[in-house]
Automatic annotation (TrEMBL):
Domain of life, source organism: Bacteria
Protein source organism: Listeria fleischmannii FSL S10-1203
Organism lineage string: Bacteria, Bacillati, Bacillota, Bacilli, Bacillales
Protein name: Uncharacterized protein
Length: 103
């Protein structure tokens, strides 16, 4: 059975992730930013739901797998509290996007 992906929620999470990635690591995460922007474009096409889901799953593989993937992203700061404060919401967005598309 095809999973019913909530495109509006996916769009919101992607927008938030792109802002964070551009703020903290625009060069280091340029590939992931590009792929997330591609996902945004796909969400606005007239493709069928099945085709959108297929493309989204392919793009999620590119974004989440391999060295330098989105799952490895974190912001370093000397201050432990500040580092946790920055990274917690980023981690939540990363896992929420995965859950929306894959689970």
């Amino acid at each position: 059975m095809q999973k019913d992906i909530k495109y509006t929620e996916v769009q919101h999470v992607i927008n938030s992730l792109i802002l964070v990635l551009k703020k903290y690591a625009s060069e280091r995460m340029s590939y992931q930013i590009n792929q997330l922007e591609l996902v945004e474009e796909i969400l606005h096409t007239e493709e069928s739901v099945q085709e959108k889901n297929r493309i989204l799953n392919t793009l999620m593989d590119r974004i989440y797998q391999g060295p330098g993937s989105l799952t490895e992203f974190y912001v370093f700061d000397e201050d432990d509290e500040k580092r946790a404060e920055i990274n917690k919401p980023i981690g939540e967005l990363i896992f929420k996007l995965w859950d929306l598309v894959r689970n």
